[in-house]
Amino acid sequence: MSKDYYEILGVGKGASQEEVKKAYRKLAHQHHPDKKGGDEKKFKEINEAYQILGDDEKRRQYDRFGQTFPGGGRQQGFGGFDFDLGDIFEDIFSATGESAFGGEDFFGGLGGFSRSRQRGARRGSDISLSLDVSFRESVFGGARSVLLDKTSLCDVCGGSGAEPGSHVKKCDLCQGTGTVRESRRSILGSFTSLAECSKCRGKGEIPEHFCKHCRGQGVFRKQENINIQIPAGIRDGEAIKLTGMGEALSGGVAGDLYVKINVTPHSVFRREGFDLVMNLYAQPSKMILGGEEAIETLEGPPDGRAGKILVRIPELSKAGDILRLRQKGVPKARGGRGDLLILLHQKLPRKLSSQAKKLLLDLEREGL
Questions:
Q1: Residue 157 annotated as binding?
Q2: CR-type zinc finger positions in the chain (predicted)?
Q3: Which residues are registered as beta bridge partners of 308?
Q4: Where do the domains of the chain lie, and which CATH numbers do they carry?
Q5: Is 200 annotated as a binding residue?
Q6: 174 is in an annotated binding site
Q7: What distance in Å separates the CA atoms of residue 263 and residue 335, rounded to the nearest whole number?
Q8: 240 has which bridge partners?
Q9: For 178-216, what is each residue's pLDDT tens digit?
């Protein structure tokens, strides 16, 4: 082999890809030519080694034949070596949580390329709020309207910032490009990067006359009624996402509104999956002989008044038995509903009359 790439990176042949990458990051940072004491020749050699050992296919070819063969791969970089500039610098400095080049994208100053400019339109901030709903609303759904104070597009100019009927002209600060050059210093020296023009906000043009209502901002704060549709079957703690109903941004897209649902507990029912569960306290005589009992349901009118239905208690029921009313539970997204589960309990009297005691003694003699 003309070069031992494992020796260059200081790793063994059995090193994992994570170990190879870790060694590369350390050495590339140490020998970068823009750093004091850096070595350009060594830096190129390190990158050459990493581009072979960091690629599974090339590493297999190198281990077997002592070289790699052309075909595929990424674009050529320094000195003809095959590597990705973005990956190199991103790998070296990703641990800092921000760019190593003063908070700006390093590649904004090289040929005008900027990763940040590839991310699309600017976006307004998201908003979150909590909404208390009744247990019945969480089961069957409903609609609510909330008054929200937020940044919205101007009603007069529609977010353009221009007075209606006003013409636009080229921005004199950025000369219509939408960007301006900024010089920044970093640990690797001084760099020039492209930043969004603060005057035209990246549009490259400004109106001749600014909107008087929003003073050319395109947005302003106002109170807005937001209609919220509560889906049937929503659970406590879940959130509803309203796309584009967050903070508006001139020249960009609005953020989203997230509505967290807080379900008020019910005095009778609780939820288990798509089933509703309730307790029913029946007299011992009715549980022994069987009979009917009127129970409350959630099937009442929308004003919240409970509906009533009769439930048949089978003969010789005992405490802990469960009665199941099918399709009386929580609606499901694909149709159908869960069940209503009724847990039976004995309703014992606080006092016994002499006649009741006599009857119970008679029952006891009968083995009951």
A1: yes
A2: 141-223
A3: 296
A4: 1-64 (1.10.287.110), 122-149+220-264 (2.60.260.20), 267-344 (2.60.260.20)
A5: yes
A6: yes
A7: 22
A8: 259
A9: 888 887 766 566 677 788 888 787 788 888 888 888 888
